[in-house]
Specification:
alpha/beta; 7-stranded mixed sheet; 11 helices; globular
């Protein structure tokens, strides 16, 4: 009886980006910080800027991000990442300097540093994760918490009359002259993750071209503090966050316009 030989070959389709270390992350199951890390690392590798990139880590759930990126990095005081990145970039203009921040860090205690860095047109890139809550400190209301959203410090839901409206950072920063690229994307499904990567790449390219301040806001999940399963939290982003925080490009410098248009048709 003839013996059939099953010759199978395996093809490598994905491996960890060089810009990520092999460290295990501390993030909760279902959190999309890990996805954001991977996208940033892939962009750094594709642009071949790992050896000259500098990360400024924030305070919050992303406080240990300097452990996960295989680039030079430092830790800023709470909310001061944009200020620290400004100093690093001015002293080392040839380096690619980026911050990685959450909504409590960037849109609350650090909102002044962020706005003035944009107003000065600092040639830095900000990756901003918006999960509408304070994650690390136990799930309190954040500047981006939605009206009616229940948190540890708003157990009956955020009240408009008491605490006002959630802040739309991408739109706010787009109105500042020093901003050359401001976009919002989401990490709740595969299609939007692909779009998020293209926006992150454009933001880094803006800095490489020496144009000015760039920011990408990424709508993210927090299953632990939202008290949801990972799947439910992705649906919540789609059904609740995106209607209030619409996705899109809010400002694109003319020098970048061609790149973003090509990215939309890929």
């Amino acid at each position: 009886m003839a013996t059939l030989v099953d010759e199978r070959s395996e093809k490598l389709v994905y491996q960890r980006p060089e810009a990520l270390t092999g460290s295990l992350t501390h993030y909760c199951p279902g959190c999309t910080h890990g996805i954001a890390h991977r996208l940033v690392a892939e962009v750094i590798d594709e642009l071949d800027i790992r050896q000259r990139s500098i990360l400024v880590a924030s305070v919050g759930c992303s406080v240990f991000s300097y452990r996960y990126f295989a680039v030079d990095s430092c830790e800023a005081a709470h909310g001061r990442a944009a200020a620290m990145a400004t100093g690093i970039k001015r002293v080392n203009p040839e380096n690619i300097v980026f911050t990685y921040q959450g909504d409590g860090d960037l849109a609350s205690i650090g909102i002044a540093e962020t706005i003035h860095a944009a107003a000065r047109g600092e040639k830095i890139t900000i990756v901003f994760l918006n999960n509408a809550i304070y994650g690390m400190t136990g799930g309190q209301m954040a500047p981006t918490t939605l009206i009616g959203q229940k948190t540890r410090s708003s157990p009956f839901g955020r009240d408009l009359g008491q605490t006002g409206y959630p802040i739309r950072m991408a739109e706010m920063l787009a109105g500042i002259d020093g901003t050359v690229y401001s976009a919002r994307r989401s990490l709740h499904d595969a299609r939007h993750i692909i779009q998020a990567k293209k926006a992150i790449k454009t933001a880094f390219e803006a800095q490489m071209m020496g144009l000015g301040f760039s920011i990408v806001e990424l709508l993210s999940t927090c299953p632990t503090n939202w008290h949801m399963t990972p799947i439910e939290s992705c649906d919540w982003v789609r059904d609740n966050m995106i209607p209030y925080f619409p996705l899109g490009d809010y400002k694109v410098a003319q020098e970048l316009a061609g790149r973003t248009q090509r990215g939309k048709h890929r």
